[in-house]
Amino acid sequence: MERRIPKRIGGTMKLNFWYEELIRCPSQCYYFFLDRGKLKCIYLRWRYSDPWTVDLITLPESEMSEDWPDINAKEAKWESIDLGYYSDDDLKKLQEKAVKKLVRHRFLNFLKLIK
């Protein structure tokens, strides 16, 4: 199965921001953030029926200089994440939970390690 990210959604990519393609066939959302110097992406996808799926993508260093990183880069590492069952109507709740669990939680644990 091929996964893609649009080359341009209004210019250069911003970190810590949800990009949404809610076209229903499939709907996809992307949230890029830095984790200990590595570029990561939370990728949400809805395929014609519930539930939403969640993947965490660690992108290779070569993609950090791109305006839009290629989530399909050969060196990208995909990890399927189970955050529970979220229907089509629950997107905002899922986005909040994904950021809380995958960004804030990891960052707070990292801060505890370096103290």
From TrEMBL:
Top-level division of the source organism's lineage: Bacteria
UniProt name for this protein: Uncharacterized protein
